[in-house]
Design brief:
The chain is built from 6 helices and 8 strands, in the order H-H-H-E-H-E-E-E-E-E-E-H-H-E. It is α+β, with helices and mostly antiparallel strands and 296 residues long. A 5-stranded antiparallel beta sheet has the order 3-2-7-1-8. Helix 4 packs across helix 5. The N terminus is likely disordered.
Amino acid sequence: MGRRSDPEPPGGDTPDPQTPDTQTPDTQTPDTRTPPTDPVGADGVGEPEAAGPPAAGDGGGGATAVGRRRRDPLAAVLIGVLTLLLGFAFAVQVRSTDTDEQLAGLREEDLVRILDDLSAREDRLRQEIFDQRGALSQLGSSDSAAAAALAEAEQRAEALGILNGTVAARGPGLEVVIRDPADRVTAGVVLNAVQELRGAGAETMQIDDVRIGVSSAITGEPGALEIDGEPVEAPYVIRVIGSPEDMSTALSIPGGVSATVNQRRGSVEITPSQDVVVDALRPLDTPQYAEPDDGG
């Protein structure tokens, strides 16, 4: 059986099986063509591309830009404030440097004088602070001080009213009854009784229904006495406020009021009490010649 030969490839030489294919593959040449330009409008100017919506991967770039625009005024304000502070600090430093240079060039006598002036100014300022604090404290307590002054004035007015007989009074004292059955007790005897009681510390008194004052006058004949023009009759009842012991002793001394009344066939009855009421009042006299002094 004969050997079958392989058919030859059509249209070409048979490649040499022993010669390797050394053909270098074609390398891709980069595209150096000019990109197309934007179309030119009718006026000869290229129309820009229409801005489309941001891409999905933009990540909120528009919101970031808005936030940056909002922060810009605040940053400008902060920068302005910092600039002003820096300028002020620089001015203070320059002034301090100038002051130090001026002081460094002064004589010792001038420095001592400046120090004395500063010390005197400090003392004045401290005194002003002390005065202002005192005035503030006084203003804070003005209400209580006014109330205390008013209460004191009322007490003084009441005390003066008791002494001059224009205010009723009550307190410990005596009730003295002078009897004169023979009508031999004179105005002088009753006046001595009033003086003895005053000397023993009597604060206020009345005889019958007549209040005894500083200007009281006892006049008349025995059995028909008058006090400040008001008639009084025996027995003469004296109600007096003061120390019961002192006044009782003053009326009972030898040769005193009790002894004199006894010599005139009368009697004196003294009764101490812790609740004596003196309610007869004296009318206030209108001054005829005196008038208030305005201090001019």
